[in-house]
Amino acid sequence: PDFHESKVTHLLMRANSITEIQVDCLSSDIRLIDLTDNYINIVPSSLFNFQMLTTLILTNNNIKSLPEEIS
Q1: Residue 40 pLDDT more than 80?
Q2: How many CA atoms lie within 13 A of 33 on its CB side?
């Protein structure tokens, strides 16, 4: 879903077979993202440009490494 034009602050999408984080679809007001139990293997560095984001939960995904900018 595209939440870019919305005021969505919490995105809870556990166990939805998601394979990638589509940063361009997120609201600039996003504060919490929970993508537990999906198939994500890449965390885009642009995800960390959201100034309001305080909580990012990516438990039980296929992530092998984090972006160099944040590690």
Answers
A1: yes
A2: 21
